[in-house]
């Protein structure tokens, strides 16, 4: 039993200290995050993680300024919930209240936002005015790209109409029309051929009748 506990504790230690990464700069953090915003964490609750000495943190945050968010439903307009866990070695632990600059991922199942230590997530007073100006520029570029993206349905529709499948279907239709025309042409040739033969036969019969006379 003691060996099993030892192995389990070793495994847990490896898992906890397994996260190794270089902190991404503001631009790279912005590029890789689903959502970037300044938020004021006003509540922090610890919840059991399933391990005696490890905790989860569920933190309520008031969103003050959004730099990046690729959605229009307003789900994260005012409030959001941050989730972090000591079990996951790369999680940025939101354990204290205060204003933060958060680069986060969005959990599509729960709607929770989480960040990791590889991002530039930190308390707001860690950043200077130049950092915030850089984020404003990144945000403007992102919004411009988002506008272009939102105009894509018209382009996509055009692309669908001119897609290989559409072209192939058009070609099949043209082939069918040509085949239909060819069939009609073959029928006309056959009719003219038969009529020509009948004319020749009648001519021969008439000629033979004239010779007998």
Summarize the structure in short.
With 213 residues, the protein is of the alpha+beta class.
Report on this model:
With 213 residues, this protein is α+β, with helices and mostly antiparallel strands. Helices cover 48% and strands 23% of the residues. It has 2 domains: 21-127, Beta Barrel (OB fold (Dihydrolipoamide Acetyltransferase, E2P)); 157-212. The chain has helices at residues 2-16, 26-32, 129-150, 152-161, 164-212, and strands at residues 35-48, 55-69, 79-85, 98-106, 113-114, 122-123. β4 (98-106) and β5 (113-114) form a beta hairpin. The protein is rod-shaped and about 125 Å long. The termini are far apart. Residues 1-16 and 154-170 have low confidence and may be disordered.
Regions with little confidence, pLDDT below 50 for 5+ residues: 1-16, 154-170
The tally of domains stands at 2
Task: Output the CATH topology of the largest domain.
Answer: OB fold (Dihydrolipoamide Acetyltransferase, E2P)
**Span between termini:** 129 Å
Biggest beta sheet summary: 6 strands, antiparallel
- How many distinct beta strands? 6
Give me the number of helical elements.
5
User: Order of helices and strands, N to C?
Assistant: HHEEEEEEHHH
Which structural class best describes the helix and strand composition? alpha+beta
Q: Any idea of the CATH class of the largest domain?
A: Mainly Beta
Which word captures the global form?
A: rod-shaped
Beta-strand fraction estimate: 15-25%
Helix content: 40-55%
Please tell me the CATH architecture of the largest domain by its name: Beta Barrel
The radius of gyration computed from the alpha-carbon positions, rounded to a whole number of angstroms, is: 37 Å
Overall pLDDT, averaged?
78
